[in-house]
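FAQ: What does the model actually see?

It sees only this:
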Amino acid sequence: MERKFPEQFTDRYEAIIPDFELFLNVLVTPLKQSFRINTIKASKQEVLSQLSDIKLIPILWCDIAFRIQEKINIGQLAEHKSGLMYSQEAVSMIPALILDPKPDEKILDITAAPGSKTTQIAAIMNNHGLIVANDVSRNRISALISNIERMGVMNTVVTSLPGQRIGYLAPDYFDKVLLDAPCSLEGTIRNTPEVLSDWKEAKIKRLSKLQKGLINSAYKSLKPGGILIYSTCTFAPEENEAVIDYLLRKYPDTSVEPIKLEDLKTRPSVLDWGDAHFDESIKNAIRIYPQDNDTEGFFVAKIRKSLR
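And it is asked to produce this:
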């Protein structure tokens, strides 16, 4: 499959993305659909028995998630319509797994729509505790509410506020926060190749400013000692490592913790980009490239707020 990449795109990433030719080749390879079972409504065994006629491949880092071998429309399956399963890219499931929410915790999903990670967090919490699912876009809120209802989620309050305000409205309140930040979507090229036609470095710089405002608010909303997961589906260091570096400079007592997920291949984060050298602790953040696990691309950092 032919696909032309902008010259600026290849020039900026060739030096930092390993196996670069393989990376580009995988970006033009269609991605198999994936889903996770909604354990709020049914057990893994119950759902798999209903899907016994479909060829499935287990996703190794999430024991209730599978890829579909065949070309079918997941959204048209009765099991999907009834909320027994949720169509979600395999790598998109990783932030909620690393967040590791507990049933008695208060969780903020600060940019939640359309709800893939909110509903995953609710299932991990067994529908207990409290989730505040926020999204500034009123157009996307309807999809968020629809998915919450379809999946049988009962522990979630939906709000529609600028994410940058929440840390000031509810400081030191949440046990854990997920910020899956709006980004330039470079990691989604396999599923949405039109991302390339809209790709501009100016857009990356604009989004980096937005992400810094969001991560500052997310951090403020955390209790001392709380955990913040920051993730994007893009490769740009300005939207990834630079955002974490901004937070660490603003709050020097903050720590970036190691991430380990069984059976997931990850790559080191970038510590040098142009004239910038990022904080050494950012080496604990992970990059996930499409060629390593047959997924989209992702970046994830696990941040702990200081106790002071």
